[in-house]
Amino acid sequence: MKRDLPTEERILKAARKVFLDKGLEGSRMQDIADTAGINKAMLHYYFRSKEKLFETIFSEVVDGFLPRIFGILNADDSLFEKINKFCSAYIEQELETPYVPFFIVGEMNRDPKAFLKKVLKGKKPPLRKVTLQIQEEIKKGSIKKFQPVELLLTVLSLCVFPFLARPMLQTVTGMNMKQFITLMEKRKIELPGIIIKSIKA
Amino acid sequence: MKRDLPTEERILKAARKVFLDKGLEGSRMQDIADTAGINKAMLHYYFRSKEKLFETIFSEVVDGFLPRIFGILNADDSLFEKINKFCSAYIEQELETPYVPFFIVGEMNRDPKAFLKKVLKGKKPPLRKVTLQIQEEIKKGSIKKFQPVELLLTVLSLCVFPFLARPMLQTVTGMNMKQFITLMEKRKIELPGIIIKSIKA
DNA sequence: GTCTATATTCCGATAGAC
DNA sequence: GTCTATCGGAATATAGAC
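^ Those are the sequences you sent over. The predicted structure of the assembly is below.
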């Protein structure tokens, strides 16, 4: 793997690949070393421990998509516009890094409290503004009465699950990666419509 | 744990609990032994190896819900009726065994080919009949033109994902297990409507 | 069948030469 | 900084007494 990169970056690149694919417990330091084309001892020289190396990758991943998502939720757009942008941003992000959802769900399950602490860093998830917008639209009568958490579930389900189910989907349908991407590009456009229909009065 | 059950069943019960919760790699034989209230050596006496014990639980889990699902897909109901029954059956099943989706997704990711081989046992997933029904409804003009896989994705996303996201959901919203169950009972009734709306012409 | 004790394997981590 | 060799602990697996 990329013999021209400096060692530290080669390690990060390899660790990203292995950890994202197999999670913390499923990954071996030997695997990461082999992938990076260097010796196992080097991993410890640069990152002290497996945990520390993992934390580095984890933060990198979270910081890579969370700000974008939070930004959308806190913007000044209408509720419907936000649903649109959220789906687009989320699916585009996932198409770039298709293993991230697995990684996230795995970590979430392994240790939910530690996970949220690391992800939110003491802050609260920025759901307040959207919640208010939902209540307002309900009052206006433009959408049905429902709990905000239901919309959250609908949106996340439709955006995230396909990436979790991708291995199964590809094996069952014989679809290759390119076809999967095409399918998700199509859904990126269609999902907001489905979601909005589901809440319209 | 249940001192009155025969040893083999105590082991199975404990293994079910631990494996479903932590997956293959996250589970320890010691954990299972402790949970069963017996000695570690007994696990090997009855099941030879960790892998073998895991396979047993895995098959048990898969056989516990797949026939029901396949039965619904192959029944003589209309497409819309099937969507209804599928959502109900799936969510009811998951409410009984809320860790199964994690387990399934984890295994699917760990080794997709082995997973499908074990699950389908050489057979094909029974999607042919539903596919034909979709094509028929499209021809009739009662639903939009779309690929069957899209409907599959929509249904599975909405039914499965909430259970994968439950730990996060509970931590973020402060919801307890009972509240989560109430939420899913509600969605069990609403989801078919959302799904059918999404495909209606 | 069940236990204790021990062997074996695997893996993260470190020591030390270069 | 990079490597080889090795340690030490943890986890799976087995031997052997009862």
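Chain B touches chain A at residues 22, 25-26, 102, 105-106, 108-110, 112-113, 115-116, 125, 127, 147, 149-150, 153-154, 156-158, 160-162, 164-165, 167-173, 175, 183, 186-187, 190, 194, 197-198 (CB under 8 Å). Residues 28-30, 40-41, 43-44, 48-50 of chain B lie near DNA strand D (CB under 10 Å from a C1').

Shout if you want it in another format.
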